[in-house]
Amino acid sequence: MIFGQANRTGLDGAVAGRGARGVLLGLAAAGTMLLAGCGDGKDQTAAAPPPPQVTVSTPVQQTVREWDEYTGRFAAVERVEVRARVSGYLDRIAFKDGDIVYKGDLLFVIDPRPYQAAVDAARARVQQARSNVALTQRELDRAQDLRRTQAVSQSTLDQRAQEMQAAQASLLEAEANLRTSELDLEFTQVKAPVTGRVSNRLVSVGNLVSGGSEQSTLLTTIVSLDPIYFTFDADQAAYLRYVRLSRSGDGPSAKPESTPVTLALPDEKAFTHAGHLDFIDNSIDESTGTIQVRAVFDNPDLLFTPGQFARVRLIGRADYAGLLLPDSAIGTDQSRRFVLVVDGENKAQYRPVTPGPLQNGLRVIRDGLQPADRVVTAGLQKARPGSPVAPVEQPIQPPQQSVQAVPTDGATVKEARP
Asked: Against a cut of 0.90, is the pTM above it?
């Protein structure tokens, strides 16, 4: 019994000893975890990243001239339909299709023999009329001499005078018929009425052509090339803006010939061809709400062709002081554009802006920016609005002078000038 009691007491002591050791081990583990947690906090504080380094620059300031750009077509100053003026068989063609011809050059020859015969007959009638005039003049002189001696009556003298006047009228008629016949003979040689490029022949040699009427045979066409017109349509809002600018002296003049324009062909980026406005229509088209405008360009190398498309630009608004930034400084927030401006505490601040055209690698900023703003131009993706940054000042390289702008908003382009 004593043995059994002693054994139980020893068993309880062993259990109690193991429980105490478990508690101690738990406390030790908790302390270790707590120390480890404190150690991790110290490591995280030590590993906090520094503010991101970004490049900041102030905008480039330049005087910006706005241009309005339009698409239109070239048109010939003179376009002539060459038609036969007399009827006959086509005898000869004196040009090659597509040639450059000059005013007065021979193009077609209609068989002249019938008209030459008509001229010879008209000349004969003129000679006959002149002979008749001479005869009646002698008879009139004789009657006047006889009348002085009362050898003939007054009625005879009046008759001789009337015959003289009729003979003179017949002479005038014969001479007019001769000129008509000579004109018809001249018209058998169809000559170029203007200088330009001739189209293809529409009638071959040997065909009968008709002339001298509304149904005269069309032989070919000629279009002049130098100078050449360029026509385009401007909307009425632009027209009103031009009128107001003209009155203020900043835009297109009320006299079209004093308004310069520049032109670029479809395969050209720069507007290198200079011209001037020539005509503005007197009313706005009610169906389209546009008004027709015409410019004129020199074309000495015959590069421009009637019907060809091209782009033309003219001064659209008054000059103003513009600010320019590289595209890398402009971010997109859904439909809005923005930049990050670094304030005095070196924190990036969100600033919405209104961008304009691209100007030799720099973008015109129309609104939302001040000349003294320090704008993040490189490293925009590293900065966050309201967060500190490490700015590195670096100036923006200015664009070259008078470089053509690439439009971004329809018909408006810009040109920056220092």
From this structure: no
